[in-house]
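Protocol check, entry for the methods section draft. Step 1: assemble the input record (protein sequence plus ligand SMILES). Step 2: submit for complex structure prediction. Step 3: store the structure tokens unaltered in the notebook. Ligand used here: zinc ion. Step 1 record:
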Amino acid sequence: MTRTGRVELHTHLEGSVTPARLILLSEKYGQPGLLTACLNEDGSFYRFEGFHGFLNVFKHVTSLLRAPEDFHAIARDLGVQLASDGVGYAEVTLSYGVLQKRGIDPLPVQSALAEAAAEVAADNGVELRWVPDAVRQWGVDAAWRAWEAAATAGRELGVVGFGLGGDETAGPAADFADLFAEVRSEGFGVTIHAGEVPGMGAAASESVRQAVVDCRADRIGHGLAAAADPLLLATLAARGIFVEMCPGSNVATGGIGTWADHPVRTFLEAGIPCCLNTDDRALFNLDLEGEYRRASELLNLTLTEHDTMQKAARKAAFDCLV
Ligand SMILES: [Zn+2]
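Step 3, stored output:
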């Protein structure tokens, strides 16, 4: 399947809620106080400090996403953002774990998203696919419930994979090995956030290793910790594990000091398939065009290297594009 535009494989629907949409949602649900906890004084962008500050803002944003129509609206917004950013195909994560924790049935939400995706394809020329995920710190049983809902929604509603997000410091990926074996056996892709959080020491490498070896992830979200571990780099390369890199996000949450500190080149030189992604484009005020531009300006990546990443992304898409 060929499509025009860039491919983005790691972008969260909840992280694409624009400040303007957040203001509308806060009015709808009578929660104006949340705005001061999330936005700057004139309401034009999000503000937070560090990884846990970010998680707090993320929690506030998700608390205002309640009805299927809210998800439909933000998916339409995301379609507009992606089209203006030159993205033609995106796999979008949505936390079923958070929905279920809040007592929201994911299935009507996923139906609304499938409807929105059809409209986005027709109106904005962007193909959206969905990767529901579970929240690591809420444990294996909750993750199974999220997966069962994702499997029920299935490819008919645009679901192509299943993932694991949340607080990486809260529990080992290996606990979820049986779950991801089931996801794979049902023919869905597996992506796991790992090696993202700063300050985990040797546990960060182990976190990536468990995601790859125990859970047999097809793709790793972030994977920063692997860059300092030659053996792990070799494992990723040998197994062809795709790394969804999110440099701007890592700067925003404190995983790296500056964009130029990101080990994009280390992954490329190790022969690991990878691409750039925004992660939470509205919350971090990022776009993909800017991320690729910074890769050129700050790390001297060539257009050929950009092309290498995009070709790898097409191949790693769960709805394979090559
Ligand atoms: Zn992410």
